[in-house]
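Lab notes, practical 5.
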Amino acid sequence: MAEDYKPGSVPLEEQDDRKLFCKYHYKGVLIILIPLALAPMFLAFPILVFRFLYLTFCFYLYYILNLMARGAAAFIYITLIPVCGIESSKPLSISYYADIIFLCYAAVFMGGAMDTSKVSERIGTFMLGISNGNIKMLQIFLTILVMFNAALVNPTLAAAFWMKVAQAAMVELDKGGVVKLYSDEKPYEVGSKPYPSFPAAGIFITCGYAASLGAMMSPLVNPNGIIASKYGIDISGLVMITAGPAIIGVIVMIVWINLIFFGMLGGKTKADLLEGAANKPAFKQALVDKKASLGSWDTHAKATLSLIILMFILMATRKPNIVPGWDDFTGSVTCGITVPAIFVGILFFAVAANYLFCRYYVCREPEKQGTAPSLVGWKTVNNICPWADIFMLGAAVSGIVSGVPSQYYATVVKALKTDDGGPFLHFLYGALYGTLLTILAPATTVAQIAIPVVSEASRNFSLPFATALHNSFLLPTSSAANTLVSGWGNVRPYLYLIAGIVPTIIVFLTVFGMTSLLRPSIYYT
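Output from the prediction step:
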């Protein structure tokens, strides 16, 4: 019997073979080597800009290379930005608790309620029945549904809802022997969650990417609403630019994930999926048994789904960009996305999962005696909450906020404007710069913080900068949707780099092309 791991003991087995040095010790070496290699940046001018860049390079290299626990790396900014004289700790601390962070917490409340009430299992088994256990059909259905929800409601909540459904579906596929849920790779940290298999990672990443693409072609949700209001342009003109690239991006995303994660090019993944396909008859029977065990929708499941629908309605009608919403009638006080999301999140804890207490008020005895717990408990939420990933998202937001006092945005735009290549290159530079920032942090945050600075410096530069903010694919911190998918599915950053490289390039090229083509019709309004 293997000895249990104890804190303080060596988490990896000892090895005398020096050839295994890189495998077992590269993280410790790089943690020291990266700051030393980048240290000459402290000698460059402008001083605050290069201090900010130094911390940013270290932060994201640690994150992408998985050199340090994400929950610890997330506090690099809040610790060292004030020390470097860039920004004081108070506004920096506030940025770690932006609206988008609390929206993630509301999504976690919703996800916990879905798991507890088995709403995710019920919808997951229904989708498996429609797709006949075919993972490629499951991906297509998820893409359509996530995009529809993201376009009408909110991309973060859409990704969270369908990610829980996808997880429940993958559990059943794993039990039926059709698709493996977990990889055989040993987790680096002892006791951590297992890594998902390539097919599972492909399904999970689909939820995050489809959410970003759905928001891209929607006039109702941000960042399109923020971009349109910043420039004073008609949002329908902005959607004309983004809708076409979004459709192309969906097709590219589906094909690319099939190539990389579903074994379309062959290899071990394809062999595993073909082997699993032989178990379809047994899986179908297991699915029938699963539906029978779930039974009809009980009060717990109905109440949970009702509150989720209420959350979606409140979010969709809060501030749609084409008609007035209920937030427009609250006077000078603005209700952000946090208000309706957290409000319904609180109701998940307040509403009873059953109505045994009604026996005190109506003349009807319950079927069985017992307690009346809430729809979700805090222990469940605490267990499924991806704390480290949400902290990383907060750090990404703080990095965008810190770009203003460090003069980073203004310095970059000023440097690019001095190029002799003319307006076309400035237009291209703006699109590339917007893509870079939205890779590092959520598009809504970049739009709110960076667009005013960039727009003041150069309008020709800022328009493609703004329309390029939809390239939220390459990192888990690129969007709140990606953050939740990464945290719940334990999808590491390097898989996002693999999955997102082609969609990012295609979406960038198509958005840049459409912005260049339609610029005269929306620019001077």
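Observations recorded by the TA: Confidence is low (pLDDT under 50) at residues 520-525. The first helix runs from residue 21 to 38.
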